[in-house]
User: What shape does this take?
Amino acid sequence: MMIGIEALTFAYPNQPPVFQDFSWQVAAGEAWAVIGPSGCGKSTLLYLIAGLRQPRAGRLSVSGQPVPRPRASTGLILQDYGLLPWATVWENVALVMRLGRLYRAKSGPPDGSRPYPRADIGADQVDRWLLRLGIADLRDKFPNQISGGQRQRTAIARSLLQQPNLLLMDEPFSSLDALSREDLQRLTIELQRETGVTTLVVTHNIEEAVYMGRRILVLGRAPNTHAWVIDNPGAGAPAYRGRPAYWDKCAELRAALEAGAGGAASEAAAAETARAAAAGAAAAATEASGGAS
Assistant: This one.
């Protein structure tokens, strides 16, 4: 099990709980999308998994180990890219290599959940990831000289250089134009399949969640007490967006969000709404077919 959350409770100071007695599991190698309304705790969940926040109660583990602090084998990609403005594209990606050499005398637990970057990363690996991400010709450019999509490719290259077993992405494509967003969605799916890294993508976008997440975690208004999961086995297929199954799954997810996740009653309501939406779509298709004949 890559991520195990058991009866977790978390609240910010002087605020009601964001999560209360919340449990959820993620298997190694899975590709997840996390979606929910603004303020529901999507980013908070990533920060808890990354070791940037600590639960007030319950247990959270990654690779079977607690996460009292950030671990180098977890990659975290933020909406604002997290690049150093005074460093070139190559230098931003190579930062992982330099930190690994700085901490080369440090050792981590034998389970592979490294608290420090790898010490054996070479410059040739930096060059290889720049080439794989399609930004090799931008190696000497600064972040303010390249586009948003190219900055995000730089951030992805830096994260994958450290060979993570878990990749967390917090609304990574929300500020990009439609074509750049779809291009990076496809690239992320390709990289996840090539490396086998467990991937969690936080998004507000229903279509993005359905395209990228083979499993989708739906969060509701805080406090979240129940992990509402939608299975989506067709996600990531190149032609998935053009298939009826894709739009059916989008309707199901929209119904879940409109009903509000968090309990059996809302789950039943969402299922009923999804059935009604599917029935309406089928009726519309039948009527259109009849009219065409």
Remarks:
- Residues 262-274, 280-293 have pLDDT under 50 and may be disordered.
- The first strand starts at residue 3 and ends at 10.
- The first helix runs from residue 42 to 50.
- DSSP finds eight helices and ten strands in the chain.
